[in-house]
Amino acid sequence: MELIEEFIKRYQKEYDYYEQSCRMVAELLESSLRSEGIRAIVTSRAKSSSRLATKVKQRAQKKPYENVSDIFEDIVDLAGVRVALYFPGDRVKVGNTIKDLFTLTAIPKEFPSDDAPKQQSNAYRKRFDGYWATHYRVFLRENELAEPQKRYAEAKVEIQVASVLMHAWSEVEHDLVYKPLQGSLSDEEFAILDELNGLVLAGEIALERLQTAVQRRVSAPGREFSNHYDLAASLAKLAAEHLDAKVLTESAMGKVDTLFKILKKLNLNKAESLDSYVVRLHNDFERRPLSEQIIDFLLEDNPENYNILEKIKTPYTENPKSTAPSNTETKLTAHEFMQQWIRLEKLIKKSASTISPGRASTAKLLIEINNKTPNQILNKAEHLKAIRNNIVHGPNFPPPSVIKSGLADLIELTNYLEPHIKALSTKKE
After folding, report:
1. CB 249 within 8 A of CB 304
2. For residue 381, with 0-12 CB atoms within 10 Å meaning exposed, 13-18 middle and 19 or more buried, which class applies?
3. Which of 54, 255, 271, 360 is the most buried (most CB within 10 A)?
């Protein structure tokens, strides 16, 4: 008992640390899910010391602790985050986002599982499976935290992902069955909880059907998307119909909120406006998420759309993972780079009809110019594309020094291409 009291006293002193750790995880995760168009309620909490004392005493009966460190190592949910999904079918997408944002400390735990706690009744036999969810144990990534926040990278945080219905049922079931404050439950009470579990599982099926119905509604011809969640539903339907559905379930949508803003600004905020991009999409979403592919197509088709994107999106402050400073120097440097990139894109687009069949690109033009192109310029072209992608999409926004250096190389590349394009155009005419 003295060991447990010592542990609780130490935890109370460190409570604010765990509270802040899980809050940071929740804020980062909620921002990313909202950007991707995934509907969810994200909450966080550090475990209350009274509940924690009860849990540790129960566990100590089966697993005697030798020191305080043993207890800290054994209790994995001192800092916890709960993701309550509107649609259970989004569990895999959320899992991919978690793996992208954080460092996993263990293999995700799926429920129901064989080693899950059994109900405490000798007579009543459950008919339903119980708790359906996925639990992740994660660390914040130290290299993506500001200097004053780096200490929070040592805190282990548990993220529980389940539907809103399942979370509600499990809260009731957990407190009544595994933390009884008013004695053990009767068989009738176990039966009622089991019945409620069945209703919740049936409700999850209804939520999955509702998600499909939403996708059909928002994808109807002539209907405008009212928000980026509608757009995300339509993109999911489009990708499922025209791309590999299995690959889709293992990938993220990307920044659907940014795509929604630019589509609305361009009056392309309808499902049929996306149809023309279907044949150009690829299903390698690890390389480029679905929404970012479409943004790239919009920019390629009309380089002036870069100016629209710049007005509606501030990548170095909007992206929760971005490490770029939000200051005037950075903004102006990025603006200069993108204005020069627009010049290059216009040059490439102008050359498409006379030089490069199909989609024009810097690479195609350099190949057309052929062996006279120095390797140094070829390498710079790839580097500049990477800078452009990180400015437009992130998450690793380049520092001002890298953008300034890239701007000089971009001007050099554009000046190199311009006379060659004119010469090739004259030759083909």
Report:
1. no
2. buried
3. 255
